[in-house]
Amino acid sequence: MADTYLKYSQTSVGKNLCRLLALPVPPVLKRAKEAPWTLVVDVLLGSVDSTVVSEPIKRILKGQMFRLQTTDCEHFDGLVFDATQIKNGDDSKALYQFFHLHLKKIRTSGKIVIIGLDPKQCQTSQQATIQRGLVGFIKALAKEVGRKGVTANLIFSATTLAVNISAPVHFLLSYRSAYVNGQVFTLNHNKSLPETPEKEVNWKQPLTGKVALVTGASRGIGASIAQVLARDGATVIGLDMEQAENELTHVMGQIGGRTIITNITDNNAAQIIANEIAKLENSVDIVVHNAGITRDKMIATMSLSHWEEVMAVNLTSIERINAYLLKNNHINAGGRIICVSSISGIAGNVGQSNYAMSKASIVGMIDSMAEQLNEKNITINAVAPGFIETQMTASIPVLTRFVGRRMCALYQGGLPVDVAETIAFFAAPQSQGLSANLVRVCGLNMMGA
Ligand code: NAD
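A: This is the predicted complex of the input protein with nicotinamide-adenine-dinucleotide.
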């Protein structure tokens, strides 16, 4: 449903009126359109000591895809700060100085990336302490720059060598991450997942030759996930319920995908999926658990069936499908499982105790399964959308919808494509360093921030 306030506030009359009434003016967000890796160009790199910037970071930014600038440049599209050398409070001055001097020079829709050291991997308690401080810093920064459409995110590297850092740096310095703001990406310290050499990465169509299953693919976020995965080169199998068959056939027809019609809560849904996969390749590379429902009511008036329906679709069916596909080796080595959670599962929401419980359980699932899946070289991650413009949110009462859209640092709802881009990023082969990550696609929503 169109956001009339967003449209109006971007006219000159609307902009002036908003300013007069001290109302927020949402920025126009720049998104990647056809080209999946639409990267920022002029980037400034800072660190505690310029002589000790991690080699992989320097190599990435000096590569052909970016223009590494010096401090005398007037404007930047991207600011990258290597904070891995910050060992204590005194060292944090360098962070202050870098952003104090250069933040004003960032263009609208610019990108800020800070690279820190995962506190769990730090050698001293003092370093772990100050590195954890970066989480607070990035969220504050993200809130300060959001009105310019600028996003700020943090990558925690497992070592100062920043192995596997290339994929998240590229994603966060691209317009694919338009609605990802104030988030932390943590690279795993896991030797069983080898790094893809930079020259072997297919940045344009990273999913070429991959087969992806997407549930709930007939509309909304699911349809967008299917489209973006196909754009990135994957063959997509879209799944939805009988009543959505026409829409699903239409979406899959546009991208040359295949369809599965089943209700994921049916006992034999996993076998039906496996049979369909068998017709194609016998196994898939990417499984996206997107299908989800809400049945909102205060717990005191909620019926048991509303509780059970939500748990069955949003949690139990996912567990059952994962177990079946994994047990029967229907997910290839190097595979990706990506679940769709919700910020309601992080912050809780009035009238959504069933939904919040199911979506928080997804976080538990990725945490508890990541290690065992590492052995099979499969990663598992989740995205937690905030307010995204779909049929699900179009049914929210008008005033709640208005407030919901403005409650983030970018003052607007996200689009299905914003969630889809983040999922495609996790699905890419070069993202093998990321597992058990929960990333919110919410523009840094105030809920649970
Ligand atoms: P939507 O209602 O527009 O689409 C959901 C899709 O899932 C539909 O195509 C539906 O037919 C399918 N589906 C539902 N139950 C199914 C079942 N039992 N078997 C097979 N398919 C089934 O929803 P959306 O807004 O696109 O949301 C997609 C996902 O994102 C959901 O998991 C939702 O919880 C999550 N999410 C959405 C938002 C938002 O703002 N829209 C916010 C947070 C999380």
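The chain has 15 helices and 13 strands. Residues 215-216, 218-222, 240-241, 244, 263-265, 290-293, 313, 340, 342, 385, 387-388, 390-393 surround nicotinamide-adenine-dinucleotide (CB under 6 Å).
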